[in-house]
Write a structure and sequence with these properties.
single chain, mainly alpha, Arc Repressor Mutant, subunit A, Four Helix Bundle (Hemerythrin (Met), subunit A), three-stranded antiparallel beta sheet, 10 helices, about 75% helix, elongated
Length: about 210
């Protein structure tokens, strides 16, 4: 991980879990001292967090922690479930034989990090898996909208892998989705993918709730 990756991941987790409260000013100099780095990686990290809505960059005030309500998060996951479900539906109809093999191979590459409980490696492999399904749907507008919502939810999708048993469950859900797409069963591929994304949202909710308990 680069210095910016390290700073971004640490702040992302603290904001999502509520350790850094909404409205809190994020001073570049203080953060640079905390992480033992220059201001440049800190600034890059804050810009990344602003893209996914965790940080607001305000003129003359700098970066502050953004507030995201439970209702907004629910709406985002509902939207993502519908969008990714449609991508899977059309991917089952339109993916070539080579693309289906590539999807199966991407799923296979998730096995090792899933078995090891390595959430960072699994998250990276998971992103490749889902990107192949998006590309396989052959609908540029649908891909664009799905990626936009995924960017907003990236921290919470990463967080859900901390939930006990979630990585193994995710791998099993991928297995069923791969089978449906391989068989060209569009309705089943859509249903399973919607459920998969909904499970992500539920797992993220549990992690946030657990951190807020006394």
């Amino acid at each position: 991980m680069s210095l910016a990756d390290h700073v971004s991941a640490a702040l992302e987790r603290e904001i999502v879990l509520g350790d850094l409260a909404p409205g809190l000013h994020l001073d570049e100099g203080s953060l640079a001292a905390r992480f033992g780095t220059s201001r440049t990686p800190v600034r890059e990290a804050l810009n990344r967090l602003a893209v996914c809505g965790l940080v607001e960059l305000r003129p003359r005030r700098g970066a502050v922690v953004a507030g995201v309500s439970e209702e907004v998060m629910t709406q985002r996951f509902e939207a993502l479930a519908g969008l990714e479900g449609l991508c899977a539906y059309y991917a089952a109809l339109r993916m070539t034989a080579e693309e289906r093999l590539a999807l199966h191979d991407a799923h296979r590459r998730c096995r090792a990090p899933a078995s090891a409980g390595d959430y960072l490696r699994y998250d990276a492999a998971d992103m490749i898996f889902h990107r192949l399904i998006l590309e396989g749907c052959r609908n540029d507008i649908l891909i664009e909208q799905t990626l936009a919502v995924r960017r907003l939810l990236k921290p919470w999708r990463r967080l859900q892998f901390y939930s006990a048993g979630r990585i193994e469950a995710s791998y099993g859900e991928h297995e069923a989705i791969v089978t449906a797409i391989r068989d060209g069963d569009s309705p089943q591929a859509e249903r399973l993918t919607r459920a998969h994304v909904n499970h992500q949202g539920q797992a993220a909710d549990r992690m946030v709730a657990a951190q807020s308990m006394p």
